[in-house]
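#dry-run=false #mode=assembly
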Amino acid sequence: MSGELFTLTYGSLVAQLLKDYENVDDVNRQLERMGYNIGMRLIEDFLARANPGRCYDLRDTADKIQQAFKLYLGVSPSIGSWNPGGDEFSIVLETNPMAEFVELPDHCLGLRYSNILAGIIRGACEMVQMEVMVWFIADQLKGDNVTEIRIKFVKRLEDAIPAVAEEAEVQSAVKPPSSTRASPCWSGFRTEDRDSQRPHCSAHRVE
Amino acid sequence: MTIYNLYIFDRDGQMLHYAEWVRKKQSGMSRSQVSPVDLREGYLTYCTNKYRLHLFETPSRIKFVLNTDAVATGIKELLHQIYTQVYVEYVVFNPMCPLSKPIESELFAARLDEVVRQSPAYASRPA
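#status=ok
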């Protein structure tokens, strides 16, 4: 499919958000959130199509993110600027396909136009048990030579499976299984929400 | 070769889907250890003298568990196909399908059935 159609569609999304929120910080936040929701699903397509397997260190992850950029945006960013601790790196885009045909007007200087990418990366990483922070440190739309996205590894997310699974079994022995299945688990955007919902969620299941 | 049933679990161990083709309630004596064939690929299998269980787990922790008779082959490929061609296409690509709730899409169930019935490992008669 033509990349231009995508670029223009994204452009109208950003324009619409600017109209709806009238505040660039809110638009930045919304874009990140939408990206997060996309990333949660996109990771499955990436795993299915590229079959990359699990990551064993962050350099491995960086390579796979590079691979994903190639697959979904048709660009090959370079990976670099590792910090001494090895838990932070940059993705450098010579050209940003999302920001083609774009010029930021003066009142939008605070806008992180491609912020959806930050959300996508965060959402996708979270689905493979990695909490990361993602932010832009250089943007061609703001006069920088390249577009640079910084990624910092925060922590590995642990599974909370065994306890919940046992409770579900106990419950399904006394109640019809549909009630077990329908019980809502987390659907929050942030991991803090998710963690704070967990105890409540499992307590609900034992009842 | 016969395919018995399939379970799909999400990352929290919640069951997303159950499908059944042939059900024979037999457990049998365990003949082998549950030993990972290749951890990197997330595939694991064990066998009793009555059936064989195959587990395929994606890096995103979605689990596909398929029970077959003890001699079925090519199941690893079938599970991968179920993930890429059925789960991803009919659940992940469907914005109306929540990812952490049991799957209600009929299209998904129909496509799953089709893929399993077309697989070489499927035979309508129990062995």
